[in-house]
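[agent] plan:
  1. take the single chain provided in the ticket
  2. run structure prediction with default settings
  3. attach structure tokens to the ticket
  4. add a short note for the reviewer (M.T.)
[agent] executing step 1
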Amino acid sequence: MKMIECNTLEEARNEIDKVDEVIVEMIALRNDYIKQIAKFKTSIDEIKSDERIADVVARARTKAIDLDLSPNLINDIFIRLIDEMVETEVAEFRNSKVF
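[agent] step 2 finished; step 3 output follows
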């Protein structure tokens, strides 16, 4: 998506609404991949990898800086996102191991 120059408050708000929809769609897509990843894991500990979480957050912070965003804001968003998605992955992992 590219930002367009808006001429009214309403137009700007409509564009923000469109961006918000894309954000939610991207989060849903990420969540779908998280569910797939659970199939490849062998333990709950592997799902809750602090090293992987730190790597993901560091990459997001770097991207935020590149885009002139607050890395602290992105850090907080990603920590919350990852926390929730770890729980999704744990549930998928447990469900996949039921015979």
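[agent] step 4 note for reviewer: Residues 9-37 form the longest helix (29 residues).
[agent] ticket updated
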